[in-house]
Amino acid sequence: MEILIYKILFLTCVFVCLVEGIKFNLYPNTQKCLKEDMQANQLIVGEFEVTAVPESPEQTVDYIARDTRGHILSQKEHISKGKFTFTSEVYDTYEICFISKVPPHSRGITREVTLVTKKGIETKSYEGIGEAAKLKPLEVDLKRLEDLSDSIVQDFALMRKREEEMRDTNESTNSRVLFFSIFSMCCLLGLATWQVLYLRRYFKAKKLIE
After folding, report:
1. Which domain CATH number covers 52?
2. Residue 90 belongs to a domain
3. How many whole angstroms separate alpha carbon 96 and alpha carbon 75?
4. Would the pLDDT of 113 be above 60?
5. Would you give the distance in Å from CA 157 to the centre of its chain?
6. What pTM, to 2 d.p., does this model score?
């Protein structure tokens, strides 16, 4: 029983740590992007807050989420505080950018941005699931831990797949480099042989050697 309790506490701590929160400074007329790898069909939920700037009311901040192909998944302009959600289409690296804009005649100042993101099972409301299914609190925690365990297994499977792809790429690259090296050596040997024969005929023609 104690071992089960320790496992529950450990996995609960892991689950809590998966919620990502970050705070950074956004300078005038600049943008800052945060990138992360996402699995296919994964839900991402985020909440942001930008500090108010009474000294520069014309300074605005925009938000945009896109993939490596440039597809815009979520976008908002003139933000101060709010939430966003989008679903990843394929496994890719997605970025969330905050863009500070200041008119030429205005003087902007640094703004502080707070961002909290959740993805996958972190976005599920287990309290609502428990109420709908009439589950006990312990059963809800076990359901959460079960989903978390499945998510970790999927992440490890994805990491293993990527490791295999990288290994295959590495082996293929090594083979190509080996063949290229052999081809280069053959070319050098052929060129050296041709030079020796050419110089021999030249020296014979000049009667420098017999």
Report:
1. 2.60.120.380
2. yes
3. 9
4. yes
5. 17
6. 0.61
pLDDT at residue 130 in the model: 63
Flag whether 138 is in a domain: no
Q: How confident is the model at residue 129 (pLDDT cuts 50, 70, 90)?
A: low
Which residues are CB-neighbours of 21 under 8 A, at least 6 positions away? 114, 115, 116, 117
Q: How many domains does the chain have?
A: 1
Report yes or no on 180 lying in a domain: no
Residue 161 lies in a domain: no
CA distance 14 to 10: 6
Q: Which of 29, 82, 88, 22 is nearest to 58 (CA)?
A: 29
What band does 15 get if pLDDT is binned at 50, 70 and 90? very low
First-residue to last-residue Cα distance in the chain = 98
CA nearest neighbour of 64 among 98, 101, 28, 114: 98
Please name which of 44, 54, 51, 41 lies closest in space to residue 18, comparing C-alpha atoms: 44
Give residues with Cβ within 8 angstroms of 145, minimum separation 6: 8, 11, 12, 15
According to DSSP, residue 68 is labeled T
Residue with tokens 């480099």: 177
User: Can you give the residue range of the structural domain that contains 90?
Assistant: 18-123
Asked whether residue 182 carries a pLDDT value surpassing 50, the answer given is yes
